[in-house]
Amino acid sequence: MARTSFKLGRSSNPNMSREDLNALVAKKAYELYEKRGRKSGHAMQDWLEAEKIIRGKLSK
Questions:
Q1: Model confidence over 6-26: pLDDT tens digits?
Q2: How far apart (Å, rounded) are the C-alpha atoms in residues 10 and 51?
Q3: In angstroms, rounded to a whole number, what is the distance separating the alpha carbons of residues 60 and 57?
Q4: Among positive and negative, which fits the CA dihedral 48, 19, 32, 50?
Q5: If you average pLDDT over every residue of the chain, what do you get?
Q6: What's the 3-state SS for the chain?
Q7: Contact yes or no for 50/23 (Cβ under 8 A)
Q8: What are the extents of the domains in the chain?
Q9: Left (φ > 0), alpha (ψ -120 to 50) or beta: where does 38 sit?
């Protein structure tokens, strides 16, 4: 299994493009999907949770 974790530090660009933000959210959503055992049917839930996590990390 490939490692999909990532860290955002203070050096993260606050003016990140929407495409870059979406890429980070997609990566985190996939990580959540894998963590749940790759069970389908929760894509929207994973995406929203990933978005919440990424936006929280970017606001620090």
A1: 555 544 556 789 999 999 999
A2: 18
A3: 6
A4: negative
A5: 84
A6: CCCCCCCCCCCCCCCCCHHHHHHHHHHHHHHHHHHCCCCCCCHHHHHHHHHHHHHHHHCC
A7: no
A8: 18-58
A9: left
Structure tokens at 19: 């495409």
pLDDT digits (tens, 9 = 90+) for 24-35: 999 999 999 999
- C-alpha distances in Å from residue 11, one per residue of 20, 29, 34, 60: 15, 22, 28, 11
Q: Which amino acid is at 23?
A: A
Measured CA to CA, the distance from residue 27 to residue 4 in angstroms comes to 7
Q: How far apart are CA 49 and CA 39, in angstroms?
A: 16
Token output for 45? 């839930």
